[in-house]
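Write out the 3D structure for:
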Amino acid sequence: MSKLNAYIDGVGVLGPGLADWAQTVEVLTGRTSRENVRTVLPAPSSLPAAERRRTGPVVRAALAAAHEAVASSGKDAATLASVFAASGGDGANFHAICETLASDDPQISPTRFHNSVHNAPAGYWSIATRAMAASNVLCAYDGSFAAGLLESLAQVGVDGVPTLLVAYDTDYPEPLRQVRPIDDSFGVGLVLVPEASERTLARIDAHLTDQPADTFDDAALEALRLSNPAARALPLLRALALEQKGTVVLDYLDGTQLAVTLA
């Protein structure tokens, strides 16, 4: 596969003990330790009140990361192409639907149903920002962040347009958690552009590799990396936080990883 490249102009992060990108930088550079607290999911104030009340954790995680990334990039959210990547959807909503279907009154509410579809966060994003540009939604199990990054880089390279990547997953309640043990929410947003600007953090090139994915020596950070598919982005975020040049390898598919070189 030929190398794909773009420039990163904005980052957004939300996860356990990580309220935003600024706090994530402090943690990943070792300047502060990460508190062992659950992710705080803010209500998406960009949505009208009626839609805001209908949102679940997965929408709130995705929109929080997306808004922070776009704000730091200085771009107009309405003009950005977007890629939304997640290994699943709203686990709590799935659980509630399954309970209803197993009950004596198996009638699903319209709100439950429309929040169960995989492209719900992308739909809410378009409502919140009035974005009309192309939007893709994909999943690749634990390699969803890498798959989303590849798709975003392809859009930047082929179409020459700034693109927002949002990767996110939220926790599953029992008994679903037994087969999909995601314990908390994590979201990451990147604004990728074809040309460097005064806001550019790094240029990235990506290609497939058979090298193993990068890990953390810190046990807590490594546990966080493995705890959520979106958190597989952490080695790349660490390199950005440290302003490091070089290559990081991210989890993608069985036997195939994604090498990302930063300059």
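Residues 8-201 form a domain with the Peroxisomal Thiolase; Chain A, domain 1 fold (CATH 3.40.47.10).
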